[in-house]
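Dear Dr. H.,

I hope your travels went smoothly. While you were away I took the liberty of generating a structure for the chain from your last submission, since the lab meeting agenda had it listed for discussion. I wanted you to have the full record in hand beforehand rather than looking at slides cold. The sequence, exactly as received, is reproduced here:
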Amino acid sequence: MGRIYELYAPCHFGMEAVLKREINDIGYDVTRTIDGRVYFKGDDETIVRANLCLRTAQRVMINVAQFKARTYDELFENVKAAKLEEFIPPDGKFWVSKAASIKSKLFSPSDIQSIVKKAMVDRLKSVYNISWFSEEGALYPFRVSIVDDIVTIGLDTSGESLHKRGYRVMTVKAPVTETLAAALIMLTPWKSDRILIDPFCGSGTFVIEAALMAMNIAPGLYRNFISQSWDNIISPDMWEDAKDEANEEIDYNVKTDIQGFDIDAEALKAARFNAHRAGVAEKIHFQQRDVKELSHSKKYGFIITNPPYGERLGQREELVELYSALGKRYAALDSWSMYIISAWEDTQKYIGKRADKNRKIYNGMMKTYFYQYMGAKPPKKKI
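The corresponding predicted structure, in token form, is as follows:
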């Protein structure tokens, strides 16, 4: 085991418990949880496995420094005191890719970025005894967040956000991100031996994420990560070994009943293409179909869906018709469960039934609700 780091993974607000369970499931102990962020400890192998395997994390960050600062002088001096040379080699290209501040004295993102970068440069000039950086080596992006005057300097090991799995090339407007779709599926009791239908599948995010889970395909298997070039922190062999291990764990023989419907032929074309790129095309049945035609002869299935709402569909009359049709078709199914993410305030009214549970979820900056209609559980299988 190499050096132990404090790591943290940002996630959608309200999804911390889901991410915590995921981190535990891949073998690591969570040390603390704050709003939209889960902390855990691990070595270089942990960084690799977390990036490859976590479905609901937005990034995997190394916690480089954490301190209180209410003035720019305090910010500068604390960053300059951090042991940045443990992360950035003399030829490394480093920058502050993002700064954010909430309820803090220091609130200007651009000022925070420039002061933190200047402090980093001063520290490394002194440590390496050089006056000029070639920045021809690997890339080291940092993120700064300040909440209630507590500054966190994080080194981003992922690069592109982890919702970019590598399979989504063709897309349609306003999709739910892959990380949010995975988290919502995990909030339900759905398992791979149960039926799942998304009657508004769009470019296929829900059904593709479900199929990836069913086949046990690591979500990061088809993409690259910025820390793959960090020879000073992670052995190059470690990435290759972890991907080989993830490939060996794929279940190609799992039997599924996962279906994606949409009335839009172009959306279905995108969904089929994305499913093919994700390696799950054979596990999903796509069909051009109106929600009014939704039916299934079997019991105990799941609907998990993100129907259109006001932002994407102009007329209220269309929404009323669409949600009413979904409600009627759901009522006709035998012992099914339904989970809907929507920003439309009248969702329950036109579904025709109050949800058993309802939780607020932010999809980007948009406030949405996750309406949960619980169906009967199937009888336990006799052993």
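Two observations you may find useful: The radius of gyration is 23 Å. The mean pLDDT is 95.

With kind regards,
E. W.
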